[in-house]
Amino acid sequence: MSDPINYNAFTRAEWRAFSDDAKLPLTQESLRQIKAFNDRISLQDVQDIYIPLIHLLRLQFNHYRLLQQDKATFLQQPAHRVPFIIGIAGSVAVGKSTAARLLEVLLNHYFKNSNIQLITTDGFLYPNDELKRRQLMSRKGFPESYDMAALIQFLNDVKAGVPSIKAPLYSHKIYDIVPDEFETITAPDILIVEGINTLQLPTNEQIYVSDFTDFSIYVDAEANLIEDWFLERFELLLETAFRDPENYYYPYAIGDRDEAMAKGKKVWEDIDLKNLEEYILPTRNRADMIIHKTIGHRIDRLLLRKY
Ligand SMILES: Nc1ncnc2c1ncn2[C@@H]1O[C@H](COP(=O)(O)OP(=O)(O)OP(=O)(O)O)[C@@H](O)[C@H]1O
Ligand SMILES: CC(C)(CO)[C@@H](O)C(=O)NCCC(=O)O
């Protein structure tokens, strides 16, 4: 990609040099937690990319806190803590949720007395019944498939300090919103919000998700690589699905594997790639930071917004 003028671009080696050298080395427990949710995560990436990023986030977070305090003093309001929200955007299957969970473990490690929580915007997709009613089943993930008003209300409640907020839960396994199950967000200091739409500006809304995010990250990669990652994950889903008739992918999992993979490829091409090209990629240059990945999920370049 050609670099936009309002970003500084760094190679991996340049970025690594910003590490404020392991003042607080990761414990075996934190490393175990990282490996537990994805044993393919490179610990070199953690050291070279994520630890400098955590230091940058600390700067952002501390400044945010001070500004909120000064504003409250100016407005003669009692001091109150406003959660800092980190948004993570990018294509389906680019690795947003993996990056978000990694950040969650690292923030827990480095921000010892802070309450760190994570949510995905998938929970704000309309349930399949509603998507069918609106004839949007083949538009899942597109802007109109989300209840954006509910997502904005949720973020507003988080910022307003509502002590306990319920959010709906999406399951890839049933390919739907889980009935009667919720996530509960309880007054975090930092909330990570992960989802393809965190940088979007839907035309039917006056307030956007990005109005609530204090630092945004776009996870970027070439579309043909993301397709490989999508299909690898699809195959993995099939391997777990064939033991579970309740699983959405069960009929594909017990059938012909080539046919199932052809179906996966079609879903990528007709839905997720289209969404990437039309609605997700155009939001890239709104991010505070762009993390670019190459073969094997290796991070090779980082772009940081100057202004
Ligand atoms: N850093 C990484 N190292 C190795 N594998 C990774 C890494 N990041 C993601 N993956 C793999 O790539 C695939 C997609 O990752 P992930 O599920 O995190 O994507 P996503 O962007 O959250 O997708 P979705 O939008 O569908 O929820 C998964 O199979 C995951 O294991
Ligand atoms: C739930 C989303 C939209 C985003 O995570 C995505 O994983 C999805 O289900 N897309 C629809 C097409 C598909 O991949 O099945």
From TrEMBL:
Residues holding ATP: 90-97
GO cellular component entries: cytoplasm
Location in or out of the cell: Cytoplasm
Gene Ontology terms describing biological process: coenzyme A biosynthetic process
Reactions catalysed according to its record: (R)-pantothenate + ATP = (R)-4'-phosphopantothenate + ADP + H(+)
Top EC category: transferase
Keywords tagged on the record: ATP-binding, Coenzyme A biosynthesis, Cytoplasm, Kinase, Nucleotide-binding, Transferase
A GO molecular function held by the record: pantothenate kinase activity
Domain Phosphoribulokinase/uridine kinase: 85-229
Keyword Iron-sulfur: no
Pathway(s) of this molecule: Cofactor biosynthesis; coenzyme A biosynthesis; CoA from (R)-pantothenate: step 1/5
EC number: 2.7.1.33
Location, primary (coarse class): cytoplasm
Annotated NCBIfam families: panK_bact
Family note: Belongs to the prokaryotic pantothenate kinase family.
Protein name: Pantothenate kinase
Source organism phylogeny: Bacteria, Bacillati, Bacillota, Bacilli, Lactobacillales
